[in-house]
Amino acid sequence: MAEIVLDGVSKSFGSGQRVVDGMRLRIRDGEVFVLLGPSGCGKSTVLRMIAGLEEITSGDLWMDGRHANDLEPRDRDVAMIFQSGALYPHMSVRQNIGFPLRLAKEEPGETAEKVTEMARALGLDGLLGRKPATLSGGQRQRVAMGRAMVREPSVFLMDEPLSSLDAGLRTELRMEIGGMVRSLGATTVYVTHDQIEALTLADRIGVMRDGVLQDVGTPQQVYDDPATVFVAAFLSSPQLNLLGGTAWAVRDEGIVISLGDQQITLPWSDPRAHAFVPHHGRPVIVGLRPESLTPVAEPSGGPVLAARLRSAEFHGHEWMAFAEVNIPGVDVDAVGARPKPRPEEERTDRPWRGLLRRRPAAPVEEPRHVGQRRRTDLLFRAGETRSMVQGARVNLAVDLDRALFFAANGRRIDTPAR
Ligand SMILES: Nc1ncnc2c1ncn2[C@@H]1O[C@H](COP(=O)(O)OP(=O)(O)OP(=O)(O)O)[C@@H](O)[C@H]1O
Ligand SMILES: [Mg+2]
């Protein structure tokens, strides 16, 4: 019903810096697109520009093939749902849901029928005569959704519609929202800072940071193949382990990444290894999700990090453990933050110049990382390790296939093609 195209859309308030910066995005007809990012990154501002509630400073907005920068909100055929679904307090649930239809001067019989149908779909049948003040938060939010959906707009804009609800209700309504907007076939832009909500609800996710779109893709793409270290860390739950190291291209071995007094090697047979060559001798960031680290009794040939157990936490369905390694950590907030990273200057002229013939003897004089910390606690799924005592040595086998590698400016070294 409607494709939404943002072509270099920016927004600044007054003479301040851009809170949305050169956004380029094509939201497909009928898809559920989730804009994800931390507080203050500009999500609501983007949504409000699409709704026509906020003027666009520069760039172009296209909706359904029409240039929409100057379209009145009422001419955009959008319905917006906010965090606290504001209802008309003096109207009953029935009147609230039917309000947009009455405004559009629909025939009363038809209005009544649509309201009844919408109330049934949202599980509000028994509450049609009640006033908002007598409803729970979850019920009120359902009424707000019913009111937005009843006139079947071609675009839904939802701004953290579930964030004021408790966890159980959130999961339930999330599934309902997904089902309903898909069955209506409307294009939906859904804003949230909750990565689980984004991963479970979206057809595609756009991840924002400081007004800039960092990555766009299906949930699986942005999770498995994040474009930047920020995206990887933001989508990881439990947290992503980030280690600061230095990449060394070693002729007969591959890419040796020295990590403090340890190292892991990406053999030349790994298709990612060649992308490291321009980073020879430079700082790199290794991202390891807890699921990429497995405690093993004895190192069995593959890459292993030796660590010292610090603590274990019971999470109900599993134990998570922290183990300390003598490897610099990386503070993701300090990497690639504004001023925006410029593309890494790549030494493509003679990439093999200066290649090492042998692996470097540790310790190596290493370039420092932005936001570097001296030691890191690695988080991993503990399995049997929970019986181990604090301070015990633990060997963590690294699943190299799932490891993520970033340059010091936070961009992926083996850039995903999307
Ligand atoms: N009317 C305004 N005047 C000045 N600055 C504004 C205005 N509205 C938003 N901003 C600023 O623009 C930036 C982005 O705000 P926005 O509300 O879009 O963020 P958000 O991603 O929706 O955050 P949250 O998750 O907290 O809702 C913030 O720094 C905010 O302070
Ligand atoms: Mg917001």
TrEMBL record:
<dbReference type="Pfam" id="PF00005">
    <property type="entry name" value="ABC_tran"/>
</dbReference>
<dbReference type="InterPro" id="IPR047641">
    <property type="entry name" value="ABC_transpr_MalK/UgpC-like"/>
</dbReference>
<dbReference type="GO" id="GO:0016887">
    <property type="term" value="F:ATP hydrolysis activity"/>
</dbReference>
<dbReference type="InterPro" id="IPR015855">
    <property type="entry name" value="ABC_transpr_MalK-like"/>
</dbReference>
<dbReference type="GO" id="GO:0005524">
    <property type="term" value="F:ATP binding"/>
</dbReference>
<feature type="domain" description="ABC transporter">
    <location>
        <begin position="4"/>
        <end position="235"/>
    </location>
</feature>
<keyword id="KW-0762">Sugar transport</keyword>
<dbReference type="InterPro" id="IPR027417">
    <property type="entry name" value="P-loop_NTPase"/>
</dbReference>
<dbReference type="GO" id="GO:0055052">
    <property type="term" value="C:ATP-binding cassette (ABC) transporter complex, substrate-binding subunit-containing"/>
</dbReference>
<keyword id="KW-0547">Nucleotide-binding</keyword>
<dbReference type="InterPro" id="IPR008995">
    <property type="entry name" value="Mo/tungstate-bd_C_term_dom"/>
</dbReference>
<protein>
    <submittedName>
        <fullName>Multiple sugar transport system ATP-binding protein</fullName>
    </submittedName>
</protein>
<dbReference type="InterPro" id="IPR003439">
    <property type="entry name" value="ABC_transporter-like_ATP-bd"/>
</dbReference>
<dbReference type="InterPro" id="IPR017871">
    <property type="entry name" value="ABC_transporter-like_CS"/>
</dbReference>
<keyword id="KW-0813">Transport</keyword>
<dbReference type="GO" id="GO:0008643">
    <property type="term" value="P:carbohydrate transport"/>
</dbReference>
<keyword id="KW-0067">ATP-binding</keyword>
<dbReference type="InterPro" id="IPR003593">
    <property type="entry name" value="AAA+_ATPase"/>
</dbReference>
<dbReference type="GO" id="GO:0140359">
    <property type="term" value="F:ABC-type transporter activity"/>
</dbReference>
